[in-house]
Design a protein that fits this description.
285 residues, 39% strand, Rossmann fold, Tumour Suppressor Smad4, 2 domains, eleven-stranded mixed beta sheet, 5 helices
Length: 285
């Protein structure tokens, strides 16, 4: 029997995540899995290594919340393998809605009975003095925000045409996945994740027109920095300090992140569960 491999991403600061990982390692090791992690945990049967040295595997399993899933997405996207978030009791938009037994999770991984759905990501690059000085990607959002108490001055263009100048706290470009995260908190719309679209949203802009907009991922968004400094952040994981004159380009990327679920759930149900929306009394069809 050939050995199968999986990667675990664990929120080491949560005891329930470490305990769940310990159980999952035992269950999957019994099914001839080799398991590796770059998380700061020591568990028998789990090989600890760096992100760069993680082995080729068939799935990434995340034990933690949506923030931990974003870290797992860095690993799964690079390898083009599914990313499965295990619900530890806190409802998120990317993990399972229901808290499943670890035996059920392990059985699904062993049988490969989970379903997967692609999630679009954004690509960004920073041009300074005619040269590219940074580039990257995001699953949730790319933000450009002020670094001091004063607002940041941004000149935004879409498809090589000027859109607006904003003096604001910042700007969010979010995917449908990220539309329920920072962009939602800032007043943006909720997008169903099977859409391919980008939410463009200024934060606290001093302008008559500062509404959120929904743009095609094929469009090119260019943000010129007209303040002395600003900060670019991608998924709150990758940051780059911006200076006056920098040009940030944002567009949809060709790659995707494959989110896996043991039990497929409609996004409507996720929305209701996360925000505890009032649907009591609904009888169905």
């Amino acid at each position: 029997m050939s050995t199968r491999k999986a990667i675990l991403v664990i929120n080491a600061t949560r005891s329930e995540a470490v305990d769940a990982a310990t159980t999952l390692v035992r269950l999957l090791s019994a099914e001839n899995f080799e398991l590796a992690t770059a998380s700061a945990v020591d568990i028998d049967g789990l090989t600890r290594t760096t992100v760069e040295d993680l082995p080729d595997s068939e799935i990434v399993i995340v034990l933690g919340g949506d923030g931990t899933i974003l870290r797992g997405a860095e690993i799964s996207r690079l390898r083009n393998i599914p990313l499965l978030g295990v619900n530890l009791g806190h409802v998120g938009f990317m993990a399972e809605v229901e808290k499943l037994s670890l035996e059920t999770v392990a059985a699904s991984v062993v049988a490969k009975s989970y379903s997967t759905a692609p999630r679009m990501v954004l690509a960004y690059s920073v041009e300074r003095d005619g040269s590219e000085v940074s580039k990257g990607w995001s699953l949730n959002e790319v933000t450009i925000e002020r670094t001091e108490s004063t607002m940041v001055e941004l000149f935004v263009q879409v498809d090589r045409r000027p859109l607006s100048r904003w003096g604001c706290d910042g700007l969010i470009a979010a995917t449908p996945t990220g539309s329920t995260a920072y962009a939602f908190s800032a007043g943006g719309p909720v997008l169903w994740p099977n859409l391919d679209a980008v939410v463009l949203l200024p934060i606290s802009a001093h302008a008559l027109f500062s509404r959120p907009m929904v743009i095609s991922p094929k469009s090119e968004i260019v943000v010129e920095i007209e303040s002395e400094a600003a900060m670019l952040s991608a998924d709150a994981l990758r940051e780059f300090a911006l200076v006056k004159g920098d040009r940030v380009k944002i567009t949809g990327d060709a790659s995707v992140v494959h989110l896996a679920h043991v039990h497929p759930t409609l996004f409507t149900d996720r929305l209701v569960a996360k925000f505890k929306l009032p649907v009591e009394g609904w009888r169905g069809e």
